[in-house]
Every structure is written in structure tokens, then in C-alpha cells.
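[Q] Does anyone have a clean C-alpha cell version of this?
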Amino acid sequence: MNDVLRTPAAGDMRYRSAWLGLATLLAACVAQPPAPPSANVTSAQAHVFIDESLPREVADRAGWEADIYAGFNALAVPPTKANSCAVAAVIEQESGFRVDPVIPGLPAIAWREIEERAANAGVPSVLVHGVLQLNSSTGRSYSDRIGRARTEKELSDVFEDFIDSVPMGHTLFAEHNPIRTRGPMQVHILFAEKFAKEKTYPYPVKRSIADEVFTRRGGIYFGIAHLLDYDAPYDRYLYRFADFNAGQFASRNAAFQHAVSVATGTRLVADGSLLPPESLFGSTGATEKAVRTLSGRLNLSDAAIHDALETAKTESFEKTTLYLRIFDLADQIHREPLPRASVPHIELHGPKLTRKLTTEWYANRVNERFERCLNR
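[A] Here you go.
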């Protein structure tokens, strides 16, 4: 049957368009994303869903349940069984349901960070160690507190004290605490701070939004926001778990990069990052260079291509002419609709990692927990 359909496609674009339309319709019927979760979940049902999503051994179940429910309610995210399990799976993966989990070898990690910052700032290591022997606001030396730190919150408090009280703190850390991901869902503070500017934080702020991420209620609130409070063309939670690790819409953008590869014949790393990081502002990334080779066929200028890619971290990107025309072209070449979501290919790096891990590993690990929760 495929041969019959493909024979006229080579000689007549009208047949190709008709075939693609049929293929798209069939794909939509077979792999159509599930309907949005109903918002008509009663409070009683929501509490049951959340309670059932928590592992049996979790301490203070009532407290976790209350904060998860409050997070859903504040964000107007439906507290369905699937959403509850998704949140629980991320918490279990990131912290094992501990608000401020103990990190093995944390002092050694902190000292490596300090040594690296000192080297980058051109400050002799012996001078840094000497300054850290000074007494901090608690009466103990910074060095002693670093050596005793067991959790990220404890270490973060040392850095905050050091940055605020000692001139060298500003030299080494430029007023930026190096503990950037925090709390039971390990949310990045840049996301939390940005989100808090767009939507009012529902709880009193004692010190700062960054410090609120360390709390259970704040960590869960911003974690739910990062995981679920955005519209993406996904038919599986797997892609949201990948996005939680790589950034919102990263799975959609990785699929776009694959489509660009198909359309151009250029091999791209589908990492979900369509533009270079801000530190390389002004440079042209591999994805943009590849797309520009199609500017004539797409009937788009280089400026229009760049403007579209600038929206890659928003929902609006998939409505741009660039996105639609790239997929239209790639679908024609591939002779069937390409997937609109793909787990990004990213190797993870960080001071807390002791072995080689990837975003794919992370997404699948959380998805396994998610599926076990649904079956529980």
C-alpha cells in the first residue's frame, strides 16, 4: 500500500500534499495527545490522589499532602491522579521526600567550588583559606562551618554569610550564591525568581525567593510550576520530566532540531538549545546556521529566522512560520509526520554528580517512578 501511495508523490506535488494530509490525519488518530486533565477534581478527590501518590514510608504525609495540594491550588493546575504522580515522582527522584536532603561529600564539593572560583579570580589559594578562618556570624569560622555542612541549606547559609560579611566573598562569588538548585524538587533559583515576577508568590517571603525554594512549600510550588504550569505539545509525561531537567520546551525544541536535520541533511545534536547561551551573545549557533541554508525555500530572511528562534523558550515558538515550514518540509522529505517531541541529548555535569548521566537517563528514571505510582 505504501508503494502505491508513494509512486505518484515523486512526480506530482499535489499527490504528495494529499498523502501528507492523510498521513497527518492518521497519525493524529493513532497518537493523539490525551485530552487535558479535567479541572473538575473535587478537593476530596485531589487529597486522595495526592495521598495515594506518596510512597508508603514518607514521614509527615499530611504535611507533604497539604503543601502539594496548596501548590496545585495556587497555580490552578488540575490535581489529577497523573499530575499528582508526576510531582511525587520528581520529588522522590530529587530528594527522596526530604526537604533539605543530606548530600554525601558536600564539604569536599564546596572546597572544589571555592578553589575554582579563587583560581578564576586570580586570588591565591592560601589567602582564601586564611580568610575563611575568620569567625562568621555564628561565632564559628567559615572554614569550620563548611567542613560540618551536610545539606545544601547549611552550605548556602555559609556562602550567604561570607558574601555579605567579607569583601573577598564579593570577589569570589560576585554576590551570587553557588548553590543554585534547591529544595525537595531541586528547582533552579533563576527559574523561581523569574516565575515570581510573572505570578505572585502565594506565601510570605521571610528572606528572599531564593531562600523560599529551600522550604517544602516553596520548593513544591516552584517545582509544580516548572513541571506542569506550561502548555506543550506532549502526549507523554516523559517529555515533561526531560524538560524538568533540561528546561521547559527542551523536548519540543529537540524534535525541531531533528526536523532541521532531516530538512537540511545537516547533523545536529538535538539538545533542545536552539540558540547559544547568553555568554556567547552575538554568535550564531549550529541550529541557526543550518536553518539559514533553507532561507530561500522557507521564504524567510536571516533576521526573521533569528527572531523566531528567540521565542524557543515559549509556547509561541510552535506557532511561528519558521516552526511550521520546517516541519512541513521535513515531513515531506521523511514522507510521514515527524515526532513533535523528543528527549534531548544532553550529558549532565555538576559538582554533585559522581558518574556519567544524561537527560535521557533522568527522564526515564522519573518516568519509571511515575508509572509505578499510577499502578499503585
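[Q] Thanks! Anything notable?
[A] The chain has four domains: 2-31, 43-101+183-229, 106-182, 233-376.
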